[in-house]
Design goal:
Blueprint (H helix, E strand, L loop, with lengths): L1 E7 L5 H10 L5 E3 H8 L5 H10 L4 E3 L6 E4 L1 H8 L3 H29 L4 E5 L14 E6 L2 H11 L5 H9 L4 H7 L2 E4 L4 H17 L2 H6 L3 H25 L1
Parallel strand pairs: 1-5, 1-6, 2-5, 6-7
Antiparallel strand pairs: 3-4
Helix pairs in contact: 2-5, 3-5, 6-7
Length: 243
């Protein structure tokens, strides 16, 4: 199976590209944000660990039945905000749970559905190191001022200072460009973006149909995954030495 890692920055258009790949080109999308919510649903190990680590008072209950229906996300956010130790604790609970769900989703698409290609939609693809498991990494990119303008238009409650702070809290697009195999520029209209997505699909996904078919064979797929993992690890080590 060919695993495509899709990422970008806030307000660069990653979600639009993901939607185009799913609805127009019919590729299966594994959305990390959706899995992140699923990983901490009531009754899961991650959910229970969050309450035991950060306080049982975070639990939300149904008013009629008293049943636990979730946890207070804003309150949890306030408890970890500005506290690097607490943030790392939270990440150590949530990230492994999300990765496990992602692995199961990939295996399902590969071995059960017989897919030759799957797209992992991951906002923190490079930050989390998950690009090392992707055959192709794709970044949806814009210039910083275009990114800022779109964020302000989308989230009108944000001040310019707040918007710049949110952009600065992530890896810069310039950093992601250096690690990407494919860059989809999104500086113009929705129509232009759609054309660029079509070009990427044709060049990297459709033309390699024979190769993606071969990757459905478990031994071939596993060997390819190992090769990609080693190659990206070496690339990162060389990059870290230079920087």
């Amino acid at each position: 199976m060919l695993i495509v890692g899709l990422t970008g920055g806030i307000a660069t258009g990653k979600s639009t590209v993901s939607k185009l790949l799913q609805e127009k080109h019919h590729f299966p999308i594994i959305d990390a944000d959706i899995l992140a919510r699923k990983a901490v649903e009531p009754g899961t190990r991650a959910f229970n660990r969050i309450l035991s680590t950060f306080g049982e008072d975070l639990a939300l209950h149904d008013e009629k039945t008293g049943k636990v229906i979730g946890f207070d996300r804003p309150a949890l956010g306030r408890r970890v905000f500005g506290d690097e130790v607490a943030r790392k604790k939270l990440n150590r609970i949530v990230h492994p749970a999300v990765r496990w769900l992602m692995v199961k989703a990939v295996i399902w698409e590969w071995l059960v559905m017989g897919r030759g290609l799957v797209v992992l939609d991951i906002p923190l693809l490079f930050e989390s190191g998950l690009d090392q498991f992707c055959g192709i990494s794709v970044v949806v990119a814009t210039g910083e001022e275009v990114q800022l303008q779109r964020l302000l238009e989308r989230d009108k409650h944000l001040s310019e200072q707040d918007a710049r702070g949110r952009i600065a809290s992530q890896w810069g697009i310039s950093e992601k460009r250096k690690l990407a195999d494919v860059i989809i520029e999104n500086e113009s209209t929705r129509e232009e973006l759609e054309k660029r997505v079509d070009q990427v699909v044709q060049k990297y996904f459709v033309r390699s149909r024979l190769w993606t078919w071969m990757l459905r064979i478990p031994p071939v797929g596993l060997l390819f995954a190992l090769f990609i993992f080693i190659r990206r690890r070496l690339t990162r080590k060389r990059r870290d030495k230079v920087s």
